[in-house]
Amino acid sequence: MKQPQFQLDRFEICLSGLGGQGVQTLGKVLGQALALGHGYYVTQTQSYGPEARGGASRSDLVVSSQPISYPKTDKIDLLVALSQEACNRYFGLLKPGGALMVNTTLVKQVPTNRYLGLPFTDLAQDKLGLPQAMNTIVLGAITFLLTFAKRSVIRKSLEDTLPAKIRAVNVKALNLGFREAEKHFTGLPAAWGGEEAEE
Question: Are 19 and 56 contacting, i.e. CB atoms less than 8 angstroms apart?
Fold first, then answer.
């Protein structure tokens, strides 16, 4: 098994939004990349609201350099909220010092003034003309935030997961999300892996 570059005690990620926003795919690609590509132990759990499309959707990851004793999240380090409902519902699970990243196209009332926001839905439509690529733009922004993740490894995981015909546009979406985050996000928690991982 590949040895991770950074030691992580336990890092919890909650990806949340509406059914149809690609939250589960996002969790799967990110989990695979961190486990197979980076060598971390990763657990993934997921839940859906009453309707698959339009109801609440959530995918949780626990990432660690050591075997994971409890697979579910209870003190979230990074909460990604792609809808207002998700933000309202899960904000209370964010631990002190954790980071909240929201989709500002749909999340108009953020319960704190300390958050990272990008208009992910608008970016997918305006820059790529493909609303379905929104979750991959989010993945790019997450990759920027996680200093223990390498963009090249995340990209390979994405390419390995997707059918050939949509690979190119999704790599473009990943890079777009990374660049937008690089441009707009500052002041990340130091506990997230120290120095920035190379690409």
Answer: yes
